[in-house]
Specification:
215 residues; mainly alpha; rod-shaped; disordered C terminus
Length: 215
């Protein structure tokens, strides 16, 4: 693209920057606000004066007279210009402080949200790890030394219970057999009969005569 094609834009850009510089210098002198005027019309006239001064200086029209006008206005309104500048500086400071406060609040909210998310993630991770650890411990307990000791103790108790039950059954059977023997012993049978019983086969309650067919 030829350099000449960019020339209009470069010229326009320079004009815009010049107008910004001029307007900035003029507004340092014409710095009253709407609150400083008795009516909206008076404030509008003041704004038109500002535009006229800026236009003359940017376009190079009546520059000496316009500069003299600026100087006269500054001399006549020095106190008001200073007060307005102080108010503007305070307003800018308050706005900057409000912006900084809002930014600090935003950053604090983001940090709190991130901290809450991190805490929730950490809690969830801890819960998952605890559940996995407990499941592993349960699996180890099922086949571990403690489980084997418990099973061995239970088997020992069961074996002891079976032996006790067997002893009780044996004792009961012995007692039942003694009762049956006592029923075959006749009353008045003395020691001789008892000795004879032992000699003839040892059958309680059976006399030698019974064995010989005399009974």
């Amino acid at each position: 693209m030829p350099t000449s094609a960019l020339q209009p834009w470069e010229d326009d850009s320079g004009a815009v920057q010049r107008e910004r510089d001029v307007r900035r210098r003029v507004l340092k002198i014409y710095n009253a606000t709407a609150e400083d005027f008795p009516s909206a019309a008076a404030h509008d006239d003041y704004l038109e004066t500002i535009e006229e001064v800026v236009a003359n200086l940017v376009a190079g029209i009546n520059v000496p007279a316009t500069n003299a006008r600026l100087a006269a206005h500054r001399a006549a309104n020095e106190a008001a210009i200073g007060a307005a500048a102080a108010r503007r500086a305070e307003a800018d400071r308050a706005a900057a402080e409000a912006l900084a406060t809002a930014e600090r609040s935003r950053v604090a909210r983001l940090a709190a949200a991130h901290a809450a998310d991190a805490a929730a993630d950490a809690a969830a991770k801890a819960a998952r790890e605890r559940a996995a650890r407990e499941a592993l411990e349960a699996m180890e307990d099922a086949d571990g030394p403690a489980a084997r000791r418990r099973r061995a103790a239970a088997a020992k108790r069961e074996k002891a219970e079976r032996r006790r039950a067997e002893r009780e059954r044996a004792a009961k059977a012995a007692a039942t057999g003694a009762v049956k023997v006592n029923r075959f012993i006749t009353p008045g049978m003395g020691g001789a009969a008892g000795a004879g019983a032992g000699a003839w086969g040892g059958t309680p309650g059976v006399t030698p005569g019974m064995l010989m067919g005399g009974g």
